[in-house]
Amino acid sequence: MSKKPTMQDVATHANVSIATVSYVLNGVKKVSDKTKEKVFESIRELNYYPDSSAVSLSRRKSNLIGILIPMLGDSPAAMFKKNIYYNEFVSGIEVISRKNNYDTMISGVAEPEDVKGWVKKRNLDGLIYIGELPENLYEELIQLDVPLVLIDTYAKEAANYNNVRIQDERGGYLATKHLIELGHTKVAFVPTNLQTSPVDLHRMNGYRRALSESGIAFDEDLVFESYDVKFEQPALVNRIVTADPAPTGIVTVSDVLAIGVINELKKLGKSVPDDYSVIGFDDLIISEYITPPLTTVRQDIFTKGRTAAELVIASIEEESHGHNTVVLPVELVERESTRKL
Amino acid sequence: MSKKPTMQDVATHANVSIATVSYVLNGVKKVSDKTKEKVFESIRELNYYPDSSAVSLSRRKSNLIGILIPMLGDSPAAMFKKNIYYNEFVSGIEVISRKNNYDTMISGVAEPEDVKGWVKKRNLDGLIYIGELPENLYEELIQLDVPLVLIDTYAKEAANYNNVRIQDERGGYLATKHLIELGHTKVAFVPTNLQTSPVDLHRMNGYRRALSESGIAFDEDLVFESYDVKFEQPALVNRIVTADPAPTGIVTVSDVLAIGVINELKKLGKSVPDDYSVIGFDDLIISEYITPPLTTVRQDIFTKGRTAAELVIASIEEESHGHNTVVLPVELVERESTRKL
DNA sequence: CTGAAAGCGCTTACAG
DNA sequence: CTGAAAGCGCTTACAG
């Protein structure tokens, strides 16, 4: 095959200097229209594409955005693999990035040191981090001085960065309120892990607000941590069905959990929504198609990804490294996993 | 923040030339152990990471692998977004790539010209393409002379590249055979699109083989193209339930389709597996947790991704641009969406 | 409006 | 075993 044409080839072909080609390409300086025309013509004919390694090197800008996905346990991919959620999220980032001429790379986060290395090595222009950032990573990242967007974070350090979150408190509130309105008074709350997940804590605040608004006392015995976002939840569900007081409604912090809970309940011969009303959180694509179709709190994960990408890119291009926080709305979607008591 | 250290900084710090640093880093030439030690020491102290733009530029190698995802309709992401499948696949690629010091980028494929541009721009070392490659893309890619792995392709041109496929024919066979063994004689086959999908055609060959093996005549009227891999399938299912002959078993080419079919059947008051036995294909993570748990033909998508990555990387590093074809096994997973007639 | 030249941070023959 | 220097393909002051 023929070697890839360089800027020099274009310059020669157009009978100008490479500086001029560069100017034309970057829309910089006033280049005469005829020259511009010639150059574009040559670019087209030679089918020229600027070499981004060279561009990155000389411009100190890679047009690369890194997406950091926290690891749960072993491999970064395992996380990505299991969590249907990331699919849409990454998708949103991808769309906006491409539109703005950025490419995206994904990496699992193991050691903070690795992240730093990655950013430096690849000259990443910006970073999107999903979830609570480990303390030590904050320090590393500050040193890196790279535009950063934090997703679903409530850490105080987060205030120094861009943030995209959703109305977590309101989500918990809406879900609980819904069950209460349906006549449920014994409502369980199923977070992942209250120690490690501020998001869960905020949703629980909403849960508590809804309870107290209706004069229902908060009961610790109705909070069941699952510790793991996965479909298999025998232990969790066992605790729920044997709980005292016995709940009739279950507010969950994710659709995956809700599906898991419904599944285990079925195994125990219980019916949803006849015996238990269950609410999810997220509204995954699949949630409408399970049995029963899941009542859930919808968040627009795709938009979350888009917003995150828009924020990093703005931050990169303004050189302002601003810290904006965008809180996206949530909404209750009533389907058939909840019923009037 | 302090500027990122360069190789020069390391050289100065270690009191050697940058050439030596480079040699040490690349394990090339025989550098004395003391020197090596000094250099590594400096690298550690300065927390140095080679700039990959510079490396790419001088070594003409980006250590970047591009994943091409075909677009269905509008945005590339839309595809990625909807198809739960890609999640695992990309995950597999990612794991192997990272282990081999490659990063991966994902792009939707719109115009073949765009792909070419992307490869040239980013100096991609290798490419993984999912699905049937448009004719004109073959030509473009040949010119690019970049290691390529084709996934699930049956085009004759594909023989010139690396391929990863699964036992499609066998999958169709196993699914159909299973239904026949359960006593079904009127078995429907639901492909996506026989015109555009050789994969579907191969699975149908398996379907036909199982039929003929049992002395059941193939009946065109029992083939129902869905034309779209999505959960909503009212028209499709309407055709199925009103078909003559009336099928009792349904072999489907994807879990998404199967879930869609089951869903529509329920809406029509039909029960699975009581009225219809339905089989999927893929065995998505979710498929075990829907109602009824889906009987399906499992393929290991994660391994498919891993294999694809291994092939490109081998191809990149051997400079041999080989064309190996790996056919991964499939296996029938019996769950509860099928029953004895 | 256009170009010569230095520089971005590496790699790699070539000398020694 | 080690280093000086050219080169990878761009960008960008600086001159003109």
TrEMBL record, chains A, B:
InterPro entries on file: HTH_LacI, LacI/GalR-like_sensor, Lambda_DNA-bd_dom_sf, Peripla_BP_I
Domain of life: Bacteria
Annotated ranges, domain HTH lacI-type: 5-59
Xref: PROSITE patterns: HTH_LACI_1, HTH_LACI_2
GO MF annotations, alphabetized: DNA-binding transcription factor activity; transcription cis-regulatory region binding
UniProt entry keywords in alphabetical sequence: DNA-binding, Transcription, Transcription regulation
Presence of keyword ATP-binding: no
UniProt-recorded name of the protein: LacI family DNA-binding transcriptional regulator
Organism: Paenalkalicoccus suaedae
